[in-house]
């Protein structure tokens, strides 16, 4: 990993000499009026772009890299026609593994590795079926998959569209699932299987690890466009199950696949089948809640940073089919409400809530015995 402190485009100061890593958004070899070659570069990071030129040894330096490469640049910050510009003195290509992607692509505000550990902890404590736990043990052992799972966005745009967004979305949904299944266990005992709802929250979008590319910017892979994350998720369930011995119950695997196949809720939303179980219905609603709250948060941030931030209503929002109310001078605007200190949060939601409800952190809940009146007994365990 490149250890020198990153200098962002937004922090550049005229007259300074910098050494920092940038993404090459564009590269063109041109010639001056006198016929000398030079490189015109558009260098970028998450804070913006800057016009850059290589005047000396342009052809030799240009042979070291291509557009979309990460490069470490030594350059003088200058001004040209009132705009900052980099006069690049030297440059070398950087390997992707030596670059912090979050310096170039929007990333979750929470540590991705910590979120993964929290997800594993919730799964290990709240799932009671030994068969379901064996499935997730096998899933979490897939190191390359888990690396992708911690990096992938949940979408190209709309909601959780940043590095770690998929994992953040899954963790938030899983915590909602624990709360909601416990809530409805009091109203409709025995109707919901908590193991399935939790599993659906973890697995419903896991195919996006393959549907999306996220090395430079967010886009769709060829397989993602031709197959799609729903089918990719179902194929992954089959592949993981084949690695587990003794074989997992066919009924359990069928229900897991149904959750993935139906989680969009409607045929016109892309699901090949409608939800046919209580768990699938609840999964779809949890997905809608969490994605819409993230999208609403993004809308609030955009409104706060816009030119109309003092207006009570946002601009027209296509998703919500109207202008959204932010409050007025007589009340408290959403942008000004008190929020929890991020240092007190562990990922999307306070992890302490689960411990407060009776399960010590790091311990698995034990399966209820046949004599206990537990409304969430596993469908797959005796």
UniProtKB/TrEMBL annotation:
Keywords: Hydrolase. CDD domains: HDc (cd00077), YhaM_OBF_like (cd04492). One of its GO terms (biological process) is rRNA 3'-end processing. Residues 166-292 form the HD domain. GO terms for molecular function: hydrolase activity; nucleic acid binding. InterPro entries: HD/PDEase_dom, HD_domain, NA-bd_OB-fold, NA-bd_OB_tRNA, YhaM_exoribonuc/phosphodiest. Coiled coil: none annotated. It comes from the Bacteria. Residues 331-382 are annotated as: Disordered. PANTHER family: 3'-5' EXORIBONUCLEASE YHAM. This is HD domain-containing protein. It comes from Persicimonas caeni.
